[in-house]
Amino acid sequence: MTQNKTPKSNRSDQVSFSSTHPVYQDPSVSIAARVEDLLDRMTLDEKIGQMTQVEKNSLNPDTVKQFFIGSVLSGGGGYPPENTPAGWVKMVGDFQEAAMQTRLGIPILYGVDAVHGHNNLYGAVIYPHNIGLGATRDPDLVYRIGRATAEELAATGVYWNFAPTVAVPQDIRWGRTYEGFSQDNRIVAQLASAYIKGLQGDRLNGPLSVLANPKHYLGDGGTTWGSSQMLFPIPPGYILEGVDNQFAFKIDQGDTRLDEAALREIHLTPYIAALQAGAQVVMPSLSSWNGLKLHAHRYLLTEVLKGELGFNGFIISDWAGIDQVSADYYQAVVTGINAGIDMSMVPYDYERFISSLKRAVEKGDILLDRIDDAVQRILSVKFKVGLFERPKPDPRHLSLIGSAAHRELGREAVAKSLVLLKNEAHALPLSKSAATILVAGKAANDIGLQCGGWTIEWLGQPGNITPGTTILSGIQAAVSSSARVVYDSDGRFEQLSDEIAEVGIVVLAEIPYAEGFGDQPDPSLSKVDILLIERMRTLCQKLVVILLSGRPLIITEQLPDMDALVAAWLPGTEGQGVADVLFGDLPFSGRLSFSWPRSMDQIPIVSPSLGGRETDALFPIGFGL
Ligand code: BGC
Ligand code: BGC
Per the residue annotation, which of 318, 323, 457, 574 is the catalytic one? Predict the structure, then answer.
């Protein structure tokens, strides 16, 4: 093992290596002193291990021991063989156990994307995706969702959440639009700060506090359609009409073409707010700025973020982000680490990363100072989050997962996120004692469709993938016993009677997607959905359409057929919140956080700072009846 000792300082609170209670293990000592003491004891291999994060499917606990791995993650759809709270505690705990058995016993940080609740865990409460939270404009609500999410994560030993996404999406064709709170960076900054404070709690080392991780720095929401270089084949089930090649990624991971003033004005603002809110980890974007990958961007990572903005936490790469910097992997590692990446998210081949990084240090292509800086940042965050004092979760907290209180919070969030876009002749609220209510659309009775991407699986999945209340069961629970609710997913009600029903409700949804698999050249309703609206129009007096989507959809031509239209975004597991508002127990209070285009030529929006004006959008940002 290579020993790289930095000179011992003369601090009086330092004790010798042979002591049974080394300084770094003493929580009463300052974090700076603990870091200094620990760093001083570490070999190059141990330091490189701290800079390495590996996906849990690519390693086992022994690997953690052998390579001193500093962090393990579950990628999208990453869950243990038994996807229960106990299964998670064991999975995370086994890695932790191994880390504790290393020479210095530095605990691992386990990270996941809990972007709308602890979403890979079966039975966790799934909250609306950020686009829906943006419509609530309610920082207190978002704070409480951050808190509840942290509680469910911490109960399973996960103290790091790769969230919030603080993108400022400018083009709704982007498959990550729904991860953003708004096209308006002020709304993003305000709600992201609230969420970060909620996740991290009153004190970061509290038993139920979790590290936030604003992402993806910088300009991920500003990429140009057609500029993506990612070669991901379109998966079956994703019909992309009018697309000229077979690859899914069109705008995700593309190039943001803006001058520096515009880049800062639109996209940097949320990071300034996130750092003020206490964010300790930042993830660079897989996209580029004017042709240069963010993972290679020393100016933006080191000079702007760490220098100018004074960020003293650490930078975690995105999924194989370093690999995209250069076709020559060694060069990619050198460039990425020298640009300022402190920890690399390595999905698969960690040995290649570790050996490349070690070679780069030995050859002098990466200075030991850079390594020490990275490790010092990582260790500081580990101490700040209290990891050495709470490497494993308190089993008493398991009852928080999927709790009634969290489900109530989800229901409240759903109700507040609904935006009423049309309400002809006071079609809504509905009467609970309407004689017959016809409900149509697969999405009326499908938890997976109402949750969207990043739910159990990376891309999400239709079906009853996790417990929750569907919109249909919410309606059934809300109406009085005299009302008759009839459901048919395809709207085949012709046989019911000759009389047309008083109320028809159609629930439509996009097929769940994530990242570039959701890049959509034509965000219009599908033909099947349009036919369903047309059929239902003939079967009822009042037609209410509820749209589940990760973005505004082009519905201009169908709008005249609807008496009422509700944008319900991707509400998550607590579908009762929809009925609460539909039947008037709660008012409609949501307002659009994105402008809703009339037609394709209003996409992308042009930000006011680039000379754009509010066009004659079908519904402008801020709209909501
Ligand atoms: C993982 C995701 C990751 C994606 C990146 C998937 O296989 O599950 O977490 O974001 O790959 O391409
Ligand atoms: C995504 C990130 C995510 C990571 C880990 C990447 O593909 O871009 O947002 O945190 O995977 O799942």
Answer: 318
Write out pLDDT tens, residues 139-168: 999 999 999 999 999 999 999 999 999 999
| Token pair recorded at residue 607 | 């930000």
Q: Where are the beta strands (DSSP E) in 99-257?
A: 109-112, 160-161, 215-217, 255-256
Q: Which of 255, 323, 510, 515 is catalytic?
A: 515
Pairing of strands 71-74, 109-112: parallel
Give pLDDT tens digits for 49-95. 999 999 999 999 999 999 999 999 999 999 999 999 999 999 999 99
Place of tokens 């016809």: 438
Cα(first)–Cα(last) distance of the chain, in Å? 67
Structure token pair of residue 159: 């103290």
Between 434 and 343, the higher pLDDT residue:
343
318 is catalytic: yes
CA-closest candidate to residue 107, choices 328, 381, 491, 448: 381
Q: Which two tokens stand for residue 590?
A: 């949501």
Q: Does 370 have pLDDT greater than 70?
A: yes
Q: Is 314 in the pocket of ligand 1 (CB under 6 A)?
A: no
Q: Which residue's structure tokens are 């010798």?
A: 16
Residue nearest atom 2 of ligand 2, based on CA coordinates: 318
User: Which pLDDT belongs to residue 86?
Assistant: 98
Closest-lying ligand to the alpha carbon of 214?
2
Asked if residue 75 has its Cβ within 6 Å of ligand 2, the reply is: yes
Contact 55, 13 (CB under 8 A): no
Dist. CA 565 → ligand 2 center (Å): 33
pTM over 0.90: yes
Rounded to the nearest angstrom, the gap between the alpha carbon of residue 510 and the centroid of all alpha carbons in its chain is 18
Is residue 458 lining ligand 1, measured as CB closer than 6 Å? yes
At 247, is the secondary structure helix, strand, or coil? Answer: strand
Domains within the chain, CATH numbers bracketed: 45-118+145-224+253-400 (3.20.20.300), 404-610 (3.40.50.1700)
β-strand partners of 567: 419, 547
The tens digit of pLDDT for each residue in 478-509 reads: 999 999 999 999 999 977 877 789 999 999 99
The rounded Å distance from CA 481 to ligand 2 centre is 47
Cβ neighbourhood burial of 225 (10 Å; 0-12, 13-18, 19+): middle
Q: Find residue 486's DSSP bridge partners.
A: 438
- Per-residue exposure over 327-337, b if at least 16 CB sit within 10 Å of its own CB, e if not: eeebebbbbbb
DSSP 337: H
CA of 515 to the centre of ligand 2 (A): 9
